[in-house]
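Re: duplicated header lines in exported structure tokens

Our pipeline writes sequence and tokens for each protein into one text file. With two proteins the header for the second block appears twice in some exports. Here is an export where it did not happen, for reference. First protein block:
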Amino acid sequence: MPATLSDVARLAGVSEATASRALNGGRYVAAATRERVEAAVRQLDYLPHRAARDLSRAQTATIALLVHHAQYPAHGEGTFSERVLAGVAAALAEHGYDLLYLPIGDDAGSRLRSLAAVHEGRTDGAILVGPAFPAEGIASLAGSDRPLVLIDNRFPGIDAVLADNRAGTTELAQHLLEVHGYRRLACLAGPATWPSTAERVAALRSIARRAGATIQVVHAEETTMRDGSEAVGRLRDPWPDAIVAVNDAMALGAMHRLRTVPSRRRPAVVGHDDIAWAQLSTPPLTTVRVDEAAMGAAAVALLLGRINAKDEESLPVRDVRVPVDLRLRQSCGCSGHPSWNGRLRGGRPKRSSVPAGT
């Protein structure tokens, strides 16, 4: 009876999935493991079923979009994930590709079902949205034959698309410090390991240090409205003049919590992303607009570039930065909104555009 892949895996002391990746040139297979698998193939005289292998590699003209549902719920006008989804869908339609939307929950079953859709060859590649995906999940997907692109996240050896976080935060902080004269800043942030959080916090610290301003940073496990509200409760004296949230959800949560604070102590509040709710808050939220649709389109371009490449492995890993735009509204004090902060200095609004980074 001819040897099977299961026989090869058993002799090499690895799982069938690892044996398959080793034989198909998949990433993240240690050299020693690959050698054991190849030795087992030679010893057993194993011949892979060519038809099955070719079928697994056949293109499906379908791309998977995996979104961490707890972090980016797919409802509500103008959410981050909705705008990314719109950009991805439009770009794929131009190239004749279908979209398979896979929301990922916190439960193991949800993650496994979505990963299986990619591993089993039902898609030509995948785009992962958000920094909440565990490293082992990304590594598992990267080990398949299907190319992968990350949005708002980073992983070694994987193409990524991010906003120009440092430029946007720098311009926002300069406005707070130079136009309004705030000297005590607070930053409401997500996990320090999340790339966008880390870059925005680093930029804020840098500009505050150069300006001689103080800054306190409060990290939360997520970046939701609830996290923003709870983070305000962990602020310490000296009470800040201005709060910089790493996204609009945290900023809106902070503003809701601050309504319980006497008006004379309410700091300015600013965010990042410019979701639809930012303009509807009271006062309207000053924020850095991120073009999520452009991020989705950029991710599609990277992914299709790898899918269509003759030698995909020879392509360099790319880090694409999407330009951002500062949107000045009343929450930073530009209009001296009387119900929010009586001490605001009423700087003159000026719209500006931040160029793309490198």
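Second protein block, exported in the same file:
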Amino acid sequence: MLQLTDAQKDRLLELARTALGEAVRSGKVSEVAESAEALKTPCGAFVTLTRRGHLRGCIGHIEAARPLYATVRECARAAALDDPRFDPVTPAELSSLQIEISILSPLVDIAPHEVEVGRHGLLISDGGRRGLLLPQVAEEWNWNREQFLQETCMKAGLPADAWQHGARIQAFTAQIVKEPSTLARSSSPTA
């Protein structure tokens, strides 16, 4: 998995924060050039927005189709404006949002007994349905392995026990890059 330096993590958060502000204010994100080679590496990623500890949006790309920095900027925009579970983020909310970026490793097929709660994220698919849960979700909800498998199946719109009946189980790990919850954003140009 791609390992980022602290400076690269900070840069990735800065790129996400800027994209978030642009998206909420104008509906689009400007093109940027990135000089850090590590951030140009194609990588899957998710951007999660929270407000006062509650989910406000989460969108990502599983496959490593674009450079990490571009994926993160697009996912920040989409998490703010396109998550169907929430109304679009408003400019008034920007300073109260916290950004968390999950940088994904490649997917690998895995047997149910090999799933490690807190380490693995899951993608379960069967037919045209698929559901994904990030590694931190199982920890936040205190799920055991079986609950994690069941919840991922249900997110895919499958029966909770589909993981026992031929559904494909794939795992990944995620490097989490998160803004400090006490970060003051009122002085930020994008806040």
